[in-house]
Design a protein that fits this description.
Butyryl-CoA Dehydrogenase, subunit A, domain 2; 18 helices; four-stranded antiparallel β-sheet; four-stranded mixed β-sheet; 56% helix; alpha+beta
Amino acid sequence: MVATVPRGVAWLHESAAPESVLTPEKLTDEHRLIRQTGDEFVANEVMPAVDRLEQKDWTLVRELLRKCAELGLVGTDVPEEYGGLGLDKASSLIVSESVGRLPSWAVTFGGQTGLSITPLLCFGTPEQKAKYLPRLVSGEMIGAYALSETGSGSDAMGARCRATRQADGSFVLTGEKMWITNGGFADFFTVFAKVEENLSAFLVERAFPGVTTGNEEHKMGLHGSSTVPLILQDVRVPAENVLGEIGKGHRVAFNVLNYGRFKLGAMCSGSARFVIAEAAKYASERRQFGKPLGAFGAIRYKLSEMSVRQYAVESMLFRIAGLLDAHIGGADGSAPALAALEEFAVEASIVKVAGSEMLDYVVDENVQIHGGNGFVRDYPAERHYRDARVNRIFEGTNEINRMLIPGMIAKRGLVPASATDSPIKQAAHLVLSTALQHYGKALAEQQEVLMFTADILIDAFATDSVRLRAQASGDELHRAAADIYVNDAIGRAEIAARNALAAMGGDGSAQLSKLRALMDVPAVDTIPLRHQVAEAVLSRRKYPFG
C-alpha cells in the first residue's frame, strides 16, 4: 500500500504523528558527517579569511568556492551525472546552516548553489545542464542571478530589460539589472527580460559581447560579498540559451525564489546558532557587580528567548526538508523537485519571514548582551548586526511574503472547512475564512489584514512543529522550549486575530466571542522554563538543541 505524503498547508487542518516529522534529532550518520564537513570548512577556511573577504578579495572567494566544491558541498542538489552528489534536501539544509555562520560567505554560496544551479536543475534542457552544471558544481564557473531592477525590486513582472527576437532565432538583450550577488566576478548569469510583454529567462555568459558590470555597491553589511549592477548592451544570446519557455520566466523566477526562501531560512538558522554560542560565551565570562552576566535574570531571559525562537525556526526547516524529500522521492519516485517546490511555497515563505526576523532578534540581543563592546568593530557582534538586516529584504521582502502566505492558501483553495489541534490553528482558520467571506476577491488588496493573518499562520505552523519535535524527543529541555514558544504564540495570535477581525466590521465583530473562547487557555509560568533553557545555553556555551 502506498503511503500518503502530506500536501502543502496540510498542517492547518490535519494532525501529524511525531514520528512522521523530520527533526534534527533524527539525522542519519551521513547527515551528521555532512554537518561536520561543512562546519569544519567554514571554521578552518572561511572564518580566518574574514578580513580579506571584507576587503573584496574575489580571487580568494573563487578559491574558497573551488575548495568547497571539492568537498561536495556545492553539488548536494545536483545529480551525479552532472558532477553532483544527488543528496536529499535535508543535506542541503544542513550545508546551508553551516555556511550561515558567515553571512557574506553564505550569500556568495547561495548565489552559486541556489540562484544559479537551481534554475538549471528545474528548467534546463539536457544540453544546457550538460554544458553548465558540471562547471558550476566544480567551482570552475561562478554563477549569478539577475532578476531585480531599479524600478522592479519586489515587482518582478515590472521588469524593463528587453529581449528582441532575431531572424535566426537568437535574442538581443538590452537593459540593466541591479543588486546582482556575485556579479563582480561571475562568469554566468541567469537573466530575466521581456520578450514583447512576456517575462522570459536566458542563460548569459560574461564572455558574450555587450555584457559588463558596474561598481560594487557600498552596503550596510555583507561587505565580503559582491553586489553590482549588470549592464546589457545589445547582448546576442543564442536560441539554445533560452531557459524554459518564452513567456514563462515568471515560473522560473518564482520557483527559484521558493527554494531560495527555504535556504535563506536555513542560513539564518545557522547564523543564529553561531551568534547564540558567542552570546553564551560572553555572558559566562563577562562579570558585572561581582557576578557573570549569565547569572542575571534579564540576561537569562535573552539567552532563552534567542534559543527558543531558533528552536522554532529550526523545527519548521527540518519538517519542510522532510516534506520536500517525501515528495521528490515519493512512494513511487516520480514526483519532481519542481512540483515539490511549488507544493510547499507557503511553508518556504513562512520560514523566510520567521528565520530572518528570528535572526534579527538574536543579533540585536547579542549586541545588548555585549553592551558597549557590541557597538564597536573590535567584537564581531557589530558585524553580525549589520549583516543580518538585509535578510528581511532578500528573496522577496517580508511584507511581500506575508501577503503571499494567506494569499496562496486562499488562491489554491487550501482554506479548510475547519481547523483542529490548537487554538492558534483554529484562530487562523477563523480569521482567514471570515476575511474571505467579508472581502471576497478584494482580500488581495487588504494588506494589513493579510499581514495579521500571516502572523497567525506563521505561529500556527511553528507551534505545531515545536510540539511535534518535543514529543518526538521525549526530552525535558525540548518540552520546556516548546511550552515557552506555544504560550507566547497564543498571546501574539490573539492580538493579531483581534486586529484583523476588528477591520471587518460586523462580520468580524460577530466572530470575536469565538476568538475569546478559543484563546481562553491557562497561562504558563515560563520563568522557570526559561531558566532551564538558559542554564543549558550557559553550561554548554552554545545553542543547546540539534
